[in-house]
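USER: Fancy drafting a protein?

ASSISTANT:
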Amino acid sequence: MTAIAFCRTWRLSQSPARAAQKRLASTSTTPPPLLLKLRRDLKTAMQEKDKNRLNVLRGLIADVTTAAKTSNPINTDMHVLSLLRKRTAAGREAAAEFAKGGRPDLKQNEDAQVSVLEEYAGGVETIGDDEIMTRIGDIVNSASMSQESGQTLNKGTVMKKLIGPGGTLEGKPVEKANVARLVDVALGDPSR
């Protein structure tokens, strides 16, 4: 490399755009507390040589890492809880398939992994169904009082008033799927 080529390369690497790119790459958000607990427990499982827990935790952390590269990264305990519940459902389904296939050894392994997933999912505090139903009832009552104004009450309107910006459950530890199910029940949707 000649001295001129070196100078050009060095100058490009020192450009303001490159410096801004380095700054943006170094900024990060704090991971959710449950994810930190999973990482600590991964170390403990390695030290104790607990293969079952180790496999579950490695899989969860791999899913979180994969999701971090998408447009919807896992950045709250509710996202981690959703992942735990999805993996639990998949594990139960796999255990049922193994039972049908006559593989009790694999079924037992899946059941053990599901119990580990349920242990972590049970550790996340969420708002109970009773409190959510109370808040839904408040919104339905206030909407029925203002029904004369021509505003129709549907699932989208109620969900927006609950978990949308400025909603009564905004920022609270609730699962959107559970809230949607309870809104359907409150509005009398027969399919739920």
In short: The CA atoms of residues 185 and 192 lie 7 Å apart. Confidence is low (pLDDT under 50) at residues 22-27.
